[in-house]
Design brief:
By secondary structure, this protein is of the alpha+beta class. It contains two helices and three strands, in the order ββαβα. The chain has a three-stranded antiparallel β-sheet with strand order 2-1-3, covered by helices on one side. The radius of gyration is 12 Å and the shape is globular. The structure holds zinc ion.
């Protein structure tokens, strides 16, 4: 089961969930990460500036996707 990591860019709060957890957040299974980030609000500070990325085998191998999304490190 792929895990999805969430990180608040405002306060740094992190959480992770699995695809199975999506319905508990009112989201359809298979919801895209883009939709997920738009729907997610940080439970700690209330910020909507949250990024999501998939974790595979417990690593943050896809972390670079965060930079692509924010478009802050173009090459
Ligand atoms: Zn936060």
């Amino acid at each position: 089961m792929a895990r999805i990591a969430l990180e608040c860019l405002n306060c740094g709060h992190r959480a992770s969930l699995t695809e199975d957890d999506l319905p508990a957040y009112g989201l359809e299974p298979g919801t895209s990460l883009v939709t997920l980030t738009k729907r997610t609000v940080c439970r700690q500070c209330g910020s909507r500036v949250v990024v999501a990325y998939r974790e595979e085998d417990g690593t943050a191998a896809n972390r670079s996707l965060v930079q692509e999304r924010s478009n802050s490190n173009r090459r």
